[in-house]
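About this split. The held-out portion is used to measure sequence recovery: a designer receives only the structure tokens and must propose an amino acid at every position. Recovery is the fraction of positions where the proposal matches the reference. Here is one held-out target exactly as it appears in the evaluation file.
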């Protein structure tokens, strides 16, 4: 009879001393948190095209609805909402993606 291997925890669930009070979900290198993305953060792309290329966050845009029903856009330094748009640059190329896609698609990782 063979035994199953013991699974090991891949992330740290220990609450760091300098972390803000609240629910702590640990560090995860694949599915990152909005507090980890700010202007200047470098992200590495692991997709089929341009595999391994490093992109830089150059702009973050957040949206809200005014009482009149208009959509108001403003630029921020760090991600505030899941729906925020992130502008990434690599040389003369740029992409605008939502934070929801960026954090959930496992093809993007924070560059070392």
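Reference sequence for scoring:
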């Amino acid at each position: 009879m063979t035994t199953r291997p013991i699974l090991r925890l891949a992330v740290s669930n220990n609450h760091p001393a300098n972390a803000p009070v609240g629910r702590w979900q640990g560090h995860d290198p694949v599915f990152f948190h909005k507090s980890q993305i700010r202007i200047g953060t470098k992200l590495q792309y692991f997709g089929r095209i341009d595999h391994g290329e490093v992109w830089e966050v150059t702009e973050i845009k957040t949206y809200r609805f005014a009482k009149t029903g208009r959509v108001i856009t403003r630029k921020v330094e760090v991600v505030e909402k899941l729906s925020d748009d992130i502008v990434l640059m690599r040389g003369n190329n740029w992409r605008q993606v939502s934070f929801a896609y960026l954090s959930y698609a496992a093809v993007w990782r924070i560059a070392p």
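Annotator remark: The beta strands are 42-45, 54-65, 71-76, 85-90, 93-98, 108-110.
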